[in-house]
DNA sequence: CAGGATCCGAATGGATACTG
DNA sequence: CAGTATCCATTCGGATCCTG
């Protein structure tokens, strides 16, 4: 399968059938926290605990894992300042910023149509 | 937290602190198959087994569950034709179609920047 | 054809305690 | 401050068998 767009640009690495780009991106960013982090970092760089305080409900472990994941995928950069106590600053990379665009569109849809989705109970 | 956009429109149902709209939407649609199904149905209505054949790798159980979820959230409609053998047709609702728009933007980003994401191994 | 019902392994994610 | 290390519950999702 895979969205129409793919048929335009597909060399397709059949070797080890990787899922289609869309599925792949969602597997990387579609977890519980990644998008939240990206959107926050879209506003300004954050320090670790600053992020921790800003994201309600996230555990320290998950924040670490999420950041490591995003960093490792090239969406977020991590800079260490060897001050005392040490400071670490996270920010979006250029790639991360580019992802922020379509993500913002999705966020807009979310706030606009949020009420129309049926409740879960 | 929650993206800037939220501060513009937030009545906030504090009662039972539901996550922010963005997180909520991602929890509903950010699973393994929902987006794929939505994008496919964006092209035309599908019958059950037609979908099953079109989505490589999905199990019958997951297709059912995904469709039930989307239907129950108001993103997909389900119409039964009491023919013999019976036919069931799935299509996007108006809400589903509206979601397709930002999703397409994300899909476009995916196919364009797919190669830039670092590999996982 | 379009599913419902079970079973089970794998991945996700929270809580907690400890560290340079 | 910015993590790492464990432990454990829940969820996700595939495989398989069965039905109107």
Structure, described:
The structure is a homodimer. By secondary structure, chain A is mainly alpha-helical. Chain A has a single domain (about 30-120), classed as Orthogonal Bundle (Arc Repressor Mutant, subunit A), CATH 1.10.10. Helix content of chain A is about 50%, strand content about 10%. A 3-stranded antiparallel sheet of chain A has the order 1-3-2. At the A-B interface, α1, α2, α3 and α6 of A face α1, α2, α3 and α6 of B. The structure holds a DNA duplex (20 and 20 nucleotides). Chains A, B: This is Helix-turn-helix transcriptional regulator. Chains A, B: It comes from Umezawaea endophytica. Chains A, B: Keywords: DNA-binding, Transcription, Transcription regulation. Chains A, B: One of its GO terms (molecular function) is DNA binding.
């Amino acid at each position: 399968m895979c969205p129409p767009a793919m048929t335009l640009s597909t060399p397709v690495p059949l070797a080890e059938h990787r899922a289609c780009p869309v599925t792949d991106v969602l597997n990387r960013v579609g977890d519980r926290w990644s998008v939240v982090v990206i959107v926050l970092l879209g506003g300004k760089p954050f320090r670790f605990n600053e992020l921790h305080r800003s994201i309600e409900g996230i555990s320290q472990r998950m924040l670490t894992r999420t950041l490591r994941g995003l960093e490792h995928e090239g969406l977020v950069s991590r800079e260490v300042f060897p001050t005392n106590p040490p400071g670490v600053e996270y920010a979006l990379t250029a790639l991360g910023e580019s992802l922020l665009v379509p993500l913002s569109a999705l966020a807009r849809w979310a706030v606009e149509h949020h009420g129309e989705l049926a409740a879960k109970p």
